[in-house]
């Protein structure tokens, strides 16, 4: 009986509705009253493209595309975290929540973060597409489910009445 | 806040250590004190082979291979359920546990059972083999994770000290 054992639960969040569903599911099911579990919101930014300050014709680019991209990214991160907040704010008083931002190939960054944090669970949303798309999509959750050592929870967007 | 909502949690069990790990994980994490959750132990027997009462040389086979196989299967089911019992008996007083036995291709039977029972979660163990075997094994959990609509939890055998 280890009711009071603290668990570290990583929930991978991104711009998708599915990841918010995963967050909501986690709060409903993995944070019973009185638990000391910690929820880590993990967001992974895509790798930065390499920019040259010269454009294709050899002219110096006015403005700073890297700075513009970083600003856009910052806003994207804030937007995802704000959406997450609307999901968890009803629970917030009881739950330890941390934010982590990574950069790179999402599936690899998630696996590495789970290992580095020695997380006890990884929760991810996934798509529920038809037969043809299934082979291509949902690949991040599949990749992580195979590679991380801790239990992986794959949450699909549920019908509204469920 | 839906603390008292009853959830139906299917745990697929078989002869493997991994499935017992999945059962143990479920009890630790999905059955907080006071929950009304129901745990369904699902065991799938393989399809029965078609037997003829004549052997290859045309002689009538003495004894009844189907009866012998059924007896063997019965013992196998009882053995898996007995192992499950040693895992859940410490929790039993608080948890509703049901046993379900299916027959057929495990991955298909599990998916159908989850749908028919309108389960809220499916928990499965999986193997953690090296790179080469990974592509072949763990296929039941992968198949089910793609097809069932409810959240799927994939549990790997943890190191002893975890």
UniProtKB/TrEMBL annotation, chains A, B:
Read off the Pfam families from this record. Usp
Q: Which Gene3D superfamilies match?
A: HUPs
**Which top-rank group of organisms is this from?**
Eukaryota
Q: Which residues form a coiled coil?
A: none
Residue ranges of domain UspA in the record: 9-156
What is the protein's given name?
Answer: Universal stress protein family protein
Origin species: Arabidopsis lyrata subsp. lyrata
């Amino acid at each position: 009986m280890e009711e009071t054992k603290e668990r570290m639960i990583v929930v991978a969040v991104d711009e998708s509705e599915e990841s918010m569903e995963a967050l909501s599911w986690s709060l409903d099911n993995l944070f019973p009253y009185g638990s000391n579990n910690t929820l880590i919101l993990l967001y992974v930014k895509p790798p930065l493209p390499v920019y040259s300050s010269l454009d294709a014709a050899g002219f110096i680019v006015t403005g700073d595309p890297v700075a513009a991209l970083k600003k856009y990214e910052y806003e994207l991160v804030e937007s995802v975290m704000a959406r997450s907040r609307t999901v968890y704010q009803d629970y917030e008083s009881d739950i330890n929540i941390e934010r982590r931002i990574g950069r790179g190939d999402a599936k690899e960054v998630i696996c590495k973060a789970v290992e580095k944090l020695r997380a006890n669970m990884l929760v991810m949303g996934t798509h529920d597409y038809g037969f043809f798309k299934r082979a291509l999509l949902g690949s991040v959750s599949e990749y992580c489910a195979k590679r991380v050592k801790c239990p992986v929870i794959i949450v699909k967007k549920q019908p509204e009445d469920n």
